[in-house]
């Protein structure tokens, strides 16, 4: 069994001086989660959000 590592990325819309979060969507299929972390603290804590909750969050942002 292989353990997939998060592949972090920051949105191309994030150009506000480094006040961003990074997400790793490559784990949705394998684990059903979207890890989220502070882009300024790559070695800091990671919050694992369920794929459904992250999708609802993004849909909510799009509706604003």
Number of strands: 3
Q: Per the principal axes of the C-alpha atoms, what is the gross shape?
A: globular
- H/E element sequence: EHEEH
Outline the low-pLDDT stretches.
Answer: none
What profile does the largest beta sheet have? 3 strands, antiparallel
Question: Strand order across the biggest sheet?
Answer: 1-2-3
Radius of gyration: 12 Å
Helix content: 25-40%
| Average of the residue pLDDT scores | 89
Strand content: 15-25%
Structural class: alpha+beta
Could you tell me how far the N terminus lies from the C terminus, measured between alpha carbons in angstroms?
42 Å
Number of helices: 2
Please name the defining characteristics of this protein.
single chain; 64 residues; alpha+beta; globular
Overview of the molecule:
With 64 residues, the protein is of the alpha+beta class. It contains two helices and three strands. It is 25% helix and 20% strand. Strands 1-2-3 form a three-stranded antiparallel β-sheet. The mean pLDDT is 89.
Secondary structure layout:
Elements: E1 21-23, H1 28-31, E2 33-38, E3 47-50, H2 51-62
Antiparallel strand pairs: 1-2, 2-3
């Amino acid at each position: 069994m292989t353990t997939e590592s998060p592949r972090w990325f920051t949105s191309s819309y994030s150009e506000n001086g480094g006040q961003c979060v990074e997400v790793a969507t490559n784990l949705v299929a394998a684990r059903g989660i979207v890890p989220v972390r502070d882009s300024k603290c790559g070695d800091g804590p990671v919050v694992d959000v369920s794929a459904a909750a992250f999708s609802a969050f993004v849909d909510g942002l799009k509706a604003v």
